[in-house]
Design a protein that fits this description.
two-stranded antiparallel sheet; 36% helix; 2 domains; alpha+beta; elongated; 4 strands
């Protein structure tokens, strides 16, 4: 059940994670009791198991060469250094936009390049973006876009004997195009 939302815990602190795990399990049991009591058909519902770990939505993010904005996500931003596309899907911070319209934004390569750090690519939910952009890029589907882009960039850096920051975007995009990635 993705019903429990815990606020005020620091996901980078092991003691906070422990407290959140305990509180989350308590709240799951309370939710199950409420479902059994008030929702017809759930009278005999049982808890099968808990998730292996907490599903933190927000912790560390890099400050990249580009910081994706909520405006970019909501206005179909286009970028010369696109490594893929992602539908207009935002889930978080009191905003829910479901991908039903066909609208999408391009994911720029520069999100993966931390400012001031060489030879490092960052993919997944910690890429560079503001709060609303993060509500889109942290989803598993968008994490696959940034992960595949980072993998292609790492391969291109080795192939061309340079750092990820010094690559030309066409070198990355050639690899992605061979993998049938939709770039625009």
């Amino acid at each position: 059940m993705n019903m429990v939302n815990l606020m005020g815990y620091d996901p980078t602190n092991v003691w906070d994670l422990t407290r959140a795990e305990i509180e989350g399990r308590k709240q799951v049991n309370m939710a199950l009791t409420a479902l059994r009591s008030y929702l017809p058909g759930f009278e005999n519902a049982k808890l099968r198991n808990f998730g292996m770990t907490l599903g933190t939505r927000d912790s560390r993010k890099i400050v990249g060469e580009y910081i994706l904005t909520g405006e970019d996500v909501q206005n179909q931003a286009r970028f010369e250094d696109s490594i893929g596309i992602f539908p207009e899907f935002i889930d978080g911070y009191g905003l829910l936009v479901l991908p039903t319209t066909g609208r999408y934004f391009q994911v720029p390569y520069r999100l993966l390049l931390p400012q001031g750090v060489e030879n490092l690519l960052v993919a997944g939910r910690c890429v560079s973006g503001d709060m609303i952009a993060h509500a889109a890029t942290r989803s598993m589907m968008c994490c696959t876009v940034t992960g595949q882009g980072a993998g292609a960039a790492a391969a291109a850096a080795v192939l061309h004997r340079t750092s990820p920051r010094n690559l030309e975007i066409k070198q990355i995009r050639e690899i992605l195009e061979k993998q049938d990635v939709r770039l625009s």
